[in-house]
Amino acid sequence: MKNYPKSKICIAHSAPVYLDVNKTVDKIISIIDEASRNGAELVVFAEVFLPAFPIWCAIRPPTENHDFFKLLAQNSIYIDGPEISKISEFAKKRKIIVSLGFNELSKNSVGCIWNSNIIIGKDGKINSHHRKITPTFYEKLVWSHGDGSGLKVNETDIGKIGMLICGENTNPLARYSLLAQGEQIHISTYPPVWPTHYPLTDTNYDLKSAIQIRAKGHSFEGKLFNLVCSSFLDKKTVEIVSGNNTELASYLDQVPNGISMVTNPNGETISNILQNEEGLLYCDIDISECVIPKQYHDVVGGYQRFDIFELSVNRNPQTPITLETHNEI
Description:
Structural class: alpha/beta
CATH architecture: 4-Layer Sandwich
Order of helices and strands: EHEHHHEEEEEHEHEHHEE
CATH topology: Nitrilase/N-carbamoyl-D-aminoacid amidohydrolase
CATH class: Alpha Beta
Oligomer: single chain
């Protein structure tokens, strides 16, 4: 008989120590420790939590952001660096799954940064490494394009886990590629704010509303749990990004913040919604709740027409160069 796992999860609606990689790693370790002591089997961190989301590229012209970009690069990390190793070892020690967003460096270029996410298993091993497929809007000033190699679902003892970063949750093909692999738990990560108009107007992007639409939609379509994690905008971050510009500081204090929440297979919110305060959000999930709704709309089973629709995903990692070695005569 099939057993459907139940588990307690934790979402870190938290602020990094902005642009300080070492102090942010320490904060991550502290949060993992607290989540595990409270019985969580999975803890989720926000988009590029380590060491920060580049808010400056939304509210300052590119000509003013060179120092910010250099500082971000200096505090970004390699996938095989000591920071990931330290976090992975602690995850293994606490026997907890960790989903971590971070700014990833390339060993081929000192100026190439990816918006990346890894899922670390209870054994401390990296089960998934995903780079955001396409940076959104002004994010293109900071991050490089990722590839499809990380579009995979991880089989774990709490369920089948997939994840997408921020605007990727607007991409129906990216979402379907995870659903078609049997996704049961979806992780969606977001920044603390995502400004679209300056100065502030009524037409500014409502991040809370946008997140809810996407989270509920994916849960309802896929009949799964959606774990939404946004980071928190603290006063220190506002001070760093705005500098001595009181107008920018005032703007950041008013722009709509992101939210953290959990939705169930019927598209309903089943947790508190964290937005304007920092904290850890806990929620119990039961994979058996994914079964009955599949009777109605199983878009990767009986409610799909595979003879009409076809999706092909290239999951080959992309590299800047292929070096061939030829034997010299």
